[in-house]
Amino acid sequence: MKRIITLLIFLAIANSAIAGEPQREKGISAHALPKRVADISGQPWGLQVSYAPYLKSEPGQPYLQSVKDVLAYVEKQEKSVVENGLWVVTTHPSAYSEQETKFFEKLKMELPKHNIPLFWARGSELKNGFKSY
Predict the structure, then answer these.
(1) Is 1 among the domain residues?
(2) Residue 126 in domain
(3) Can you give the pTM of this predicted structure?
C-alpha cells in the first residue's frame, strides 16, 4: 500500500512539473521575416505569427514589427497561451537590418519584464533547441 501511495505522489509531482514547463505547441510561434525578403515577396517584415486554432483570430496574417505590437498581440490571448510564451525562429543574422536587430534586442529585454516567456532559435540550429529569455 505504501508503494502505491508513494508512486501516486511521485506521478502527481512529475505531472505538475511537466505541466509547468512552457510548450511551443501551446504558445505563440513566429518566424522573423527579414525586411529585404519581405520587400521581394510583397509582405510586411517582422514576426510572422503562425496560425493556431487556439489563438485569437485576426483579420489577416499577424506581422509584429515592434515591442508594442508584440505586447498588444500577446495581451489579446488566453492566459494559457501567454504562459506558454512566444517562440521565435530566425534565419542567418546577416539577413536582418540594424532596425530589425534592435527590435529583437528590445524584445529580448522587454518580454521578461512583462512575465512573458520568450524562446529564440535560428532555423538551422533548431535541433539544439531554443534559448529562453
Answers:
(1) no
(2) yes
(3) 0.82
